Amino acid sequence: MKLLQPIFLFIITLLLISCSAENVDTTEVILETKPPSENPLTVLFSDVPEGTQAISFMGEPLFANVPNQKLINNLVLAKANYDADPMNAINIIWYGRRIAYTGDYQAAITVFSEGIKKHPNDARMYRHRGHRYISIREIDRAVDDYEMAEKLIKGTKDKIEPDGAPNPQGIYLTSTHSNIYYHLGLSYYLRQEWQKSHDAFKMGQEIGLNDDNIVSTGHWIYMNLRRLGKDEEAQDSLNNIEQKMNIIENMSYHNLTLMYKGIIPSELLTSVDPNDPSGAAIAYGVANWFFYNGETKKAYDLMEKFMKTRSWSAFGFIAAEMDLSIK
What angle is formed at CA 126 by the lines to CA 172 and CA 323, rounded to 5 degrees? Predict the structure, then answer.
């Protein structure tokens, strides 16, 4: 079988037709891009369809969505910066991130792996590669990366991490340390290591960045405690959640934690659109709410419903997929 064709081939076509970026020969930049020498899926599976990015926990091939022009333009510029100085850690990170935003997680992983070879003690390389291992369902590798990243940040100063898609206020809400603990917690959650997941999210919450951080980690802390059967402790974990908080991005997690507190009825959150990450987060949170409270059929039906959406790289989708695969 031929090697899987990365999404770069589609991007090349679009660029040849219409794309241009200031002071950059976009066609040349994209054509110079080196895809991974071999997509790991070609080793594990002999019959995956061309263009497959991952195999779901249900055994289904997963394909990248078509990237929009803005994502392509951003990738062009990131590639130009990388070409100008391929040893620069920031250039490597943004090149890998911009590739991932187009949906080519396999190629992004290759770039971050290159970054690890060049900067083996830079926790950010493991942090970003681990994220994309989660996207492609390589959870054990994600855990390995985040455990390494956690070791590397011990005793280091935390720094705010710029967002790939900044909010309208232009306020960055996460840091290197908080992102490492958050994604480590998610990786453990997907392996159903509830206590380890709880502890990682708790470490991230205790950094105390902002209210967005409190509600996002609080959501997962609560879910882990409910999975552990610690219902009273789960309820107590919400004591730092209030109706009036300064939430800039994580309204979905805020609404879920308010639902857990009994302030928002679950019925108000069941009509969300799970085709975007925030909707997927809410859908999964509500499904778990039904699960905890003995309505398992209702829970699994809701999870099945958004398995039919296109948001397969959203964390809520991945978690629901894992639950369905082992129910």
Answer: 85
Q: Are 207 and 176 in contact (CB under 8 A)?
A: no
pLDDT at 19: 41
Q: For strand 52-55 and strand 61-63, is the pairing parallel, antiparallel, or unpaired? A: antiparallel
CB atoms within 10 A of CB 186: 24
The answer, as to whether pTM is greater than 0.90, is no
pLDDT digits (tens, 9 = 90+) for 42-75: 444 456 788 899 999 999 999 999 999 999 999 9
Q: Which of 247, 250, 323 is CA-nearest to residue 284? A: 323
Q: What's residue 26's pLDDT?
A: 37
- Its sign, for the CA torsion 290, 292, 296, 299, is positive
Plot region of 117 (φ>0 → left; ψ -120 to 50 → alpha; else → beta): alpha
Q: What is the pLDDT of residue 155?
A: 96
If you average pLDDT over every residue of the chain, what do you get? 88
Q: How far apart are CA 154 and CA 134, in angstroms?
A: 23
> What burial class does residue 233 get, using C-beta atoms within 10 Å of its C-beta: 0-12 exposed, 13-18 middle, 19+ buried?
middle
Collapsed DSSP state (helix, strand, coil) of residue 286: helix
- What number is the average pLDDT over the span 133-156? 98
pLDDT in tens, 248-263: 999 999 999 999 999 9
Closest CA to 14 of 70, 94, 84: 70
**Cβ-contact 189, 199 below 8 angstroms:** no
State how far the alpha carbon of 92 is from the alpha carbons of 75, 98, 132, 141, 227, in Å. Answer: 12, 10, 15, 20, 38
Report d(CA 261, CA 26) in Å as an integer. 51
**pLDDT: is 219 or 47 the higher one?**
219
The CA distances from residue 243 to 72, 254, 258, 270, in Å, are 39, 8, 7, 20
Residue 68 contacts by C-beta under 8 Å, 6 or more apart in sequence? none
Determine the longest span between alpha carbons in the chain, in angstroms. 60
